[in-house]
Amino acid sequence: MGCQSPKTDSSEINKKMISKAQSVLKSENIEVIPNEKNTYYLCFSKSDNTIKQKLSFVVLDPKENIIYPLKVLIDGKVSWLDEKHIKTSQKMGIAKKGESNVLLYSIDVTTGQSTKL
Predict the structure, then answer these.
(1) pLDDT digits over 52-71, tens only?
(2) CA-CA distance, 67 to 51, in Å (whole number)?
(3) C-alpha to C-alpha distances, 41 to 7, 36, 52, 94, nearest whole angstrom
(4) How far apart are CA 48 and CA 92, in angstroms?
(5) Per the count of CB atoms within 10 A, which of 29, 38, 45, 70 is most buried?
(6) CA–CA gap between residue 6 and residue 9 (Å, rounded)
(7) What values do phi and psi take at 102, rounded to 5?
């Protein structure tokens, strides 16, 4: 046992993140995706409705503090772009011929500032 500092098991961190996210997102079905350095955790849930699927997400730090507050997208997706930016995509209306109806944004989770991609 000696003098080694205790390592925090990543599955233990995930359990804590899932528990916190469940209380914030009001869902039992939570996915947790850490950024590349495990400094922030993207937590999201999707509704069962496949017609207008609701995606709710929040970003937490390792101490389970909310870094980026709850946001809801209809027919959307969310993923990490880099260490502190997430990418959201959301279908809006019906696409016109030759045009995309998907809005893409980059969100800085530390400032909340979003930029259209």
Answers:
(1) 889 999 999 999 899 999 99
(2) 30
(3) 18, 10, 25, 32
(4) 19
(5) 45
(6) 9
(7) -100, 125
Phi, psi of 12 (to 5 degrees): -70, -40
DSSP 26-76: T-S--EEEE-TTSS-EEEEEE-S-SSS-EEEEEEE-TT--EEEEEEEEESE
The Cβ of residue 35 has, within 10 Å, a number of other Cβ atoms equal to: 18
How many CA atoms within 13 Å lie on the side-chain side of 58?
A: 20
Kindly state the DSSP code that residue 89 receives in the 8-state scheme. Answer: E
Q: Is 25 within 8 Å of 45 (Cβ atoms)?
A: yes
pTM of the model: 0.84
Distance CA 71, CA 32 (A): 15
Q: Which residues, in sequence order, are CB contacts of 36 under 8 Å at separation 6+?
A: 80, 82, 83
Segment 14-49, tens digit of pLDDT: 788 889 999 999 988 999 999 999 999 999 999 988
CB 66 within 8 A of CB 24: yes
Other residues' Cβ atoms within 10 Å of the Cβ of residue 45: 19
Return the residue matching tokens 């998907």: 102
